[in-house]
Amino acid sequence: MRRAASVRVPATSANLGPGFDSLGLALELFDEVTAATTASGVAVEVEGEGEGTVASDERHLVAAAMLRTFETLGVKAPGLHLKCRNRIPHARGLGSSSAAIVAGIMLADELAGTGMPTADKLALASEIEGHPDNVAPCLLGGFTIAYTTEDGAQAVGLDPSPRLRPWAFVPSQKGLTAAARAALPEQVTYADAVFNLSRAALLVDAVTRTPSRLFDATDDRLHQSYRASGMPESMHLLRELRSAGIAAAVSGAGPTVIALSVEGGPVPHEAAGFTAMKLSVADGAAIVPTSANSASQASPGSKGK
């Protein structure tokens, strides 16, 4: 068992309009987590998002994902000390839970030295999260198409156009994925299903080859309108951006709004009540060098703050 490891995991935006539970994009906004083995117990320190509010023991999502991964690998779990530096907003539709799960899987595999295949990491992350649309871009980076088979979650990674310029408009209020899913109908019309199929297919071309088609490609009839009452400010901003000719959609379950601008095209403006973040498309999760200082903080028996 290796003594310490660090990982960097990106934020993600899922759905991108019509690609419900399927399409996702990795964004250059990262959480960094360092894990070190200890004699026993689990202690978690958090800086940034979630500081003082999230669990500081084995219930913390990164720690829980690590313990689940050790179990899956057939490896006895050591004591753990985690230090999380969080920049991804929580409960805003930017994949913070997926980032935590992927971080936990990556760290457990690195500490155990098992060389877990990426496909197995994706399947486990999707099983823990419940759907693969965020964990896929978090793991693979870039633009991803996720789907499930009898063998579990699968994903295809594609390179987005270099002309793509993502913006995230993050509100102060949080959203709940469970509540957003509960707002969805059990059935949709044939016309709406066909509409989303055509737009989702078009979105693959728009993101990767023909950004001029992004505005049409990000339209949706499957989920955004049904969730509107739960995030009226976000839907108002969404309509404003689209009325200005900017391809915009609810990011994941919201309430963040993602705008996919194009180099040389209309540029999103600041929006009252939202923090505007100009981002780039990110690579996937990666193990990064662990500083001696970080490792030394986790001597046997050490406790988190």
Characterization of the model:
The protein is of the alpha+beta class. It folds into 2 domains: 4-157 and 283-296, Ribosomal Protein S5, domain 2, CATH 3.30.230; 164-278, Alpha-Beta Plaits. It is 32% helix and 29% strand. It has 10 helices and 11 strands. The chain has helices at 61-73, 96-112, 118-129, 135-140, 177-182, 190-208, 214-217, 224-227, 232-243, 292-296; strands at residues 4-15, 19-38, 42-48, 79-86, 143-149, 152-158, 164-171, 247-250, 257-262, 274-278, 286-288. The strands form 2 sheets. Strands 1, 2, 3, 4, 5, 6 and 11 form a 7-stranded mixed sheet that branches. It has a 4-stranded antiparallel sheet with strand order 8-9-7-10. Helix 1 links the parallel strand 3 (42-48) and strand 4. Helix 1 (61-73) packs across helix 2 (96-112) and helix 2 (96-112) packs across helix 3 (118-129). The longest helix is centred in the middle third of the chain and has 19 residues, at 190-208. It starts with a strand and ends in a 9-residue tail after the last helix. Residues 292-305 have low confidence and may be disordered.
Q: How many discrete domains?
A: 2
Rg computed from alpha carbons, rounded to a whole number of angstroms:
19 Å
Note the run of SSEs as H and E: EEEHEHHHEEEHHHHHEEEEH
Structural class category: alpha+beta
Contiguous uncertain segments of 5+ residues: 292-305
The CATH class designation of the largest domain is: Alpha Beta
Total E-strand runs? 11
CATH topology of the largest domain: Ribosomal Protein S5, domain 2
What's the architecture of the largest domain in CATH terms? 2-Layer Sandwich
Strand content: 25-35%
- Mean of the pLDDT scores? 92
Cα(first) to Cα(last) distance is 25 Å
How would a crystallographer describe the biggest sheet?
7 strands, mixed
Helix content: 25-40%
Q: In one word, what is the shape?
A: globular
What is the number of helical segments per DSSP (H or I, 4+ residues)? 10
